[in-house]
């Protein structure tokens, strides 16, 4: 490989949340964005040493996407890009998959050894892409990493954490305090750190790696961290679980802000092990889970003040 300061990287999906942060993090490399979408029988030209594949279709919480949209964007496109990588001079391929390729709901802790059993088109399409990559014989001198991140957050993120922030910032009490859960989160800084280590440590074996912050946090702890960022005391209500579940049951038909799907997302446990990737890179992650979330909430607060 060439010296790091001259190394070229192709990043697909670079204009998105992860891509934007990753480009800034990899400032010692020459990043070349590649805008691609699935077109039958297309050949993709690769002229860099490294390919980081971020592009794809994320899970559609509004449920308006067609199944084929997932398979074309997440499976077929990945297949085309990976075949192009195999036929190129590039030496490293990093595919950003998801823990949802393993399972949508889990008991215990998600590890790389678990047998995948996704139920959604999003998870299934990502798993199909993983399986295609793993079936291919890897030429000597090439390395391939499949990363399965959990919920990614950080500056510029506009997902569910932003919605929680807005709720607490407006002074609403948190009504789901009676639910006890444990979740994994992933700071964008930790994800970028892991990717950079994979690029710079050629002895790390190819394979599948979960990516998550150290430790787990409950949603109640998350709300408390949010309150600390806002500098205000947050009221956490412990309304009986049966009452909340009954309200959520009628959420769709009555067009309430809480329904069964949202309740599950907010209160389920989803713990992800990061032991394999930490053992591989032999370095601690730079940001703790609490610190990373605080950074995200601080960004929300600052961005809200200047808008």
Could you characterize the architecture of this molecule?
The chain has 307 residues and is of the alpha/beta class. The chain has two domains: 146 residues, 3-Layer(aba) Sandwich (Rossmann fold); 111 residues, UDP-galactose 4-epimerase, domain 1 (Alpha-Beta Complex), CATH 3.90.25. The strands form three sheets. Strands 2-1-3-4-6-9 form a six-stranded parallel beta sheet, with helices on both faces. Helix 2 runs parallel beside helix 3, helix 4 packs across helix 6 and helix 6 packs across helix 10. The termini are far apart.
Write the topology of this structure:
Elements: E1 8-12, H1 17-25, E2 30-34, E3 50-53, H2 67-86, E4 92-96, E5 109-110, H3 121-135, E6 143-149, E7 151-153, H4 160-169, E8 185-187, H5 188-200, E9 207-211, H6 219-230, H7 241-249, H8 260-267, E10 271-272, H9 275-281, H10 289-306
Parallel strand pairs: 1-2, 1-3, 3-4, 4-6, 5-10, 6-9, 7-8
Helix pairs in contact: 1-5, 2-3, 4-6, 6-10
InterPro entries: Epimerase_deHydtase (IPR001509), Lipid_A_modif_metabolic_enz (IPR050177), NAD(P)-bd_dom_sf (IPR036291)
Protein name: NAD-dependent epimerase/dehydratase family protein
Domain NAD-dependent epimerase/dehydratase: 47-212
Strand content: 5-15%
Q: Give the overall silhouette.
A: globular
Provide a count of the helices: 10
What is the helical fraction, as a range of percent? Answer: 25-40%
Protein name: NAD-dependent epimerase/dehydratase family protein
Pfam families: Epimerase (PF01370)
Domain NAD-dependent epimerase/dehydratase: 47-212
List keywords for this structure.
single chain, alpha/beta, Rossmann fold, UDP-galactose 4-epimerase, domain 1, 2 domains, six-stranded parallel sheet, two-stranded parallel ribbon, 10 strands, 39% helix, 13% strand, globular, disordered N terminus
């Amino acid at each position: 490989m060439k010296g790091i300061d001259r190394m070229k990287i192709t990043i697909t999906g670079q204009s998105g949340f992860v891509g934007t942060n990753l480009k800034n993090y990899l400032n010692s490399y020459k990043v070349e964005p590649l805008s691609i979408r699935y077109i039958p029988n297309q050949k993709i030209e690769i002229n860099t040493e490294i390919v980081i594949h971020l592009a794809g279709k994320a899970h559609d919480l509004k449920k308006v996407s067609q199944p084929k949209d997932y398979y074309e964007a997440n499976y077929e496109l990945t297949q085309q890009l990976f075949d192009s990588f195999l036929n190129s001079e590039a030496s490293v391929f990093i595919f950003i998959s998801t823990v949802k390729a393993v399972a949508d709901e889990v008991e215990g802790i998600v590890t790389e050894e678990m047998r995948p059993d996704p139920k959604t088109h999003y998870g299934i399409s990502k798993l199909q892409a993983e399986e295609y990559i793993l079936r291919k014989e890897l030429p000597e001198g090439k390395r391939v990493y499949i990363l399965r991140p959990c919920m990614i957050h950080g500056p510029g993120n506009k997902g569910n954490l932003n919605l929680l922030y807005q709720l607490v910032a407006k002074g609403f009490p948190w009504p789901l305090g009676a639910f006890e859960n444990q979740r994994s989160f992933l700071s964008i800084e930790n994800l970028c750190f892991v990717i950079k280590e994979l690029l710079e440590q050629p002895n790390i074996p190819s394979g599948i790696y979960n990516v998550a912050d150290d430790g787990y946090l409950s949603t109640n702890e998350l709300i408390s961290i949010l309150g600390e960022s806002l500098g205000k005391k947050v009221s956490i209500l412990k309304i009986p679980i049966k009452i909340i579940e009954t309200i959520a049951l009628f959420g769709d038909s009555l067009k309430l802000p809480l329904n069964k799907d949202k309740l599950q997302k907010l209160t389920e446990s989803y713990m992800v092990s990061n032991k394999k990737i930490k053992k591989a890179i032999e370095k601690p992650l730079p940001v703790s889970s609490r610190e990373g979330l605080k950074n995200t909430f601080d960004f929300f607060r600052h961005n809200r003040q200047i808008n």
